[in-house]
Structures are given as C-alpha cells and as structure tokens.
Specification:
Blueprint: E1 7-8, H1 10-14, E2 19-30, E3 36-49, E4 55-61, E5 75-80, E6 83-88, E7 94-100, E8 102-105
Parallel strand pairs: 4-7
Antiparallel strand pairs: 1-6, 2-3, 2-5, 3-4, 5-8, 6-7
C-alpha cells in the first residue's frame, strides 16, 4: 500500500462545509527538468480551519481557469468530491493533501419574511 492510497475522513479532519477560503493561486506544470512552465494545470484554494486554531489547509482543484476570482477577504466555499490523503515529502515526513474536482461559492441564504 502506498501513502497515496490512504483516504482520510474529510469531516473529522477539516470539518463540515461551508469552508472559509482566503486565497486561490494557480498551479503550474513542470517540465522534465523540473522547471516551471506557463501552463496552468489547476488551482490551489487555501482554506482556514476555525476548529484547528485557524490553521490553513490547501485544496488542489483541477480547474485551469480561476474558480474563485477576486477573493478580497474570506469567502464561504464548498468542494465537489473533496478528499484528503497523505504523501511523503522530500524530507521523508508524512504530509496531508487535499484535492477536489471543483470549488464553488456558497450563496448566503437569508430568511425572507
């Protein structure tokens, strides 16, 4: 079994949606010589985890166009097919990662009277 085969319970790890996104940056493709190209292959959405002392966690989304333009502060988001797994970094430490098929803004539903 590889560490990439291990799937962690999302709700127990980062909580229930909606999630608080505070940033969205492009992820670039790298060539065979480990040099970054100009080809965007996805986006990294940074979320804040209030239940974990406001720690931050990154979720990789496969959108090549920016799925969350113009984040000025914090916005509520949810992910499609969100999963969390583990990988071993260059230093040999086990690290968590998140990935999802898509991310979208959560619309505030106010009670209308």
């Amino acid at each position: 079994m590889k560490t990439s085969d291990i799937v962690i319970d999302v709700i127990k790890t980062i909580g229930k949606p909606p999630y608080l996104a505070c940033g969205c940056d492009p992820i670039y493709e790298y060539d065979n010589n480990n040099h970054r190209t100009d080809n965007v292959i996805g986006h990294k959405v940074e979320i804040i985890l209030p239940d974990l002392k406001y720690d931050k966690f990154n979720i990789k989304v496969n959108n090549i166009s920016n799925p969350l333009p113009n984040i000025d502060n914090v916005v509520e988001v949810d992910f499609d097919n969100l999963m969390i797994g583990l990988y071993i970094d260059r230093l040999g430490k086990i690290q968590p990662y998140g990935k999802a098929n898509n991310v979208h803004l959560v619309e505030n539903k106010q009670n209308s009277k």
